Amino acid sequence: MKCPRTGTDLKEIIVGGIKVDISEACGGVWFDNFELQKFDEAHEAAGEELVQLMNKYASSISNTSPKIKSPRHPEITMMRRYFSSTSKIEIDVCPQSGGIWLDAGELKKIREAYRDEKQRLEKGEAFVDQNLEDAGFKLMNANSTAEAQQMQNMTRVLRFLMPSSYLPRNIINLFFS
User: Fold this and answer.
1) Which residues in the chain belong to E strands, given as ranges?
2) pLDDT tops 50 at residue 172
3) Could you tell me the pLDDT band of residue 33, with boundaries at 50, 70 and 90?
4) Which end of the chain is more exposed for a tag (fewer CB within 10 A), N or C?
């Protein structure tokens, strides 16, 4: 596979028993679907080891905003999204495979942002609850049908983004634990 930032070959390494692909040219890392979950929490030693490797290879690529192609599926353009609803850490996700590309420094930021998955979910729920409350208040005070429809649409989107608002906790834990 090729680095989506530099076009150089990615090096397959094993960290904490998990195979990941790192770019020795820029310090970015490719995670196949669900691999990031093994590295993203502060208590995971493998994550700290990978952060150190990413720092070792980090380069001076200052502009990471251009969209990139998936290392796994080079014909597919990756989607940019925030790691979570409450963070401003942008990651690149392959819509075909679910794989994730992290540029140098992003894994460290993710590990610093949340103690664990439970805290990340709690912060996300609080964010959605607050925005649902605000949308509900605005809906009650809507001056027009169009404004009321806009608030209802916003509420639907927020509920979709945070499954805990409509799925039982035990179902969510199956996917996020």
Assistant:
1) 11-15, 18-22, 29-31, 79-82, 90-93, 100-102
2) no
3) confident
4) C
Question: Who has greater pLDDT, 11 or 138?
Answer: 11
Cβ 3 vs Cβ 76: under 8 Å: no
Backbone angles phi, psi at 101, to 5 degrees: -105, 125
Burial of 67 (0-12, 13-18, 19+ CB in 10 A): exposed
Annotated domain spans of the chain: 11-113, 117-176
SS3 string of 25-49? Answer: CCCCEEECCCCHHHCCCCCCHHHHH
| CA–CA dist 153, 130 (Å, integer) | 16
* Cβ atoms of 40 and 107 closer than 8 Å: yes
- Side-by-side strand order, sheet with 100-102: 11-15, 18-22, 29-31, 100-102, 90-93, 79-82
Among 14-18, 76-80, 123-127, the least confident range: 123-127
Enter the pTM of the model: 0.67
Number of H helices, E strands in the chain: 5, 6
Nearest residue to 105 (alpha-carbon basis) of 162, 16, 23? 23
CA distance 30 to 5: 11
